[in-house]
Amino acid sequence: TASAPPPSSQIIAASQNVWVVQTGDTVDVFGTAPDNTFDAFAGATHTVIVNGAEFDLSAEVRTIVIHGGPGDDVAILAGTTERELATLRPDVSIFTGADWQVRVENVGRVEVESGGGSLDRARLHDSAGNEVLVARPDEVTLTGDDFEFAAHNFIRTYTYATAGNDFAYFYDGDGNDLYRAWQHRAILSGP
């Protein structure tokens, strides 16, 4: 549950299923349902949808912080055609553009969609447990005991396995692809 906002905050929405609070150029989003779905569309202007309720945010917003709860929460983030970086970790995920950032905390499933920028990158990090990586040309997923990440349509996606008994499955595309593997890393690239 969320604590009271600071006195300088503006409550954008408060109901039994959502709480949206703006403090300066930061918006904090809290889903209060047992299981929450958060959608965030960032760019020159931002839109956040929480459990079906849509909120258009002012152009001055630079940071959106999504706070998950104890249930099975899902965050779906979409970018722009500009250069972006998605860094997904079990404790916190951050999606950054030129002048904005979406931060996701305590959410079990995080999906990130590239806006089509040729320099977009996604970085998926594992936990101390066992994970499964599935890499396809248009989607890379990393699944662990308490989390699931999906990166869609990124030009480059990097995945880091640092602990546990992890498995990786690579699937190629329709064209001629190149698979290279070493003891500590593997790369699959296509046209």
Q: Would you mind describing this structure in some detail?
A:
The protein has a nine-stranded mixed β-sheet, with no helix packed on it. The chain has a nine-stranded mixed β-sheet with strand order 6-5-4-8-12-16-15-14-18, with no helix packed on it. It has no helices and 20 strands. With 191 residues, it is mainly beta. The model has no long low-confidence stretch (mean pLDDT 89).
Q: Secondary structure elements and their pairing?
A:
Layout: E1 10-14, E2 18-23, E3 26-31, E4 37-41, E5 46-50, E6 53-57, E7 63-67, E8 74-78, E9 85-88, E10 92-96, E11 101-105, E12 109-113, E13 121-125, E14 132-136, E15 139-143, E16 148-152, E17 156-160, E18 167-170, E19 178-181, E20 186-189
How do you describe this structure in short?
The chain has 191 residues and is mainly beta.
Average pLDDT works out at: 89
Q: Label the structural class.
A: mainly beta
| Strand order in space, largest sheet | 1-2-3-7-11-10-9-13-17
Largest sheet: 9 strands, mixed
**How many β-strand runs?**
20
How many helix segments?
0
Give the radius of gyration.
Answer: 18 Å
Oligomeric form: single chain
End-to-end distance:
47 Å
The backbone outline, from C-alpha atoms, is: globular
> How large a portion of the residues is in β-strands, by DSSP E?
over 45%
How are helices and strands ordered from N to C?
EEEEEEEEEEEEEEEEEEEE
Stretches where pLDDT falls below 50 for ≥5 residues?
A: none
Query: What is the helix content?
Result: under 10%
Keywords, separated by commas or semicolons:
nine-stranded mixed beta sheet; mainly beta
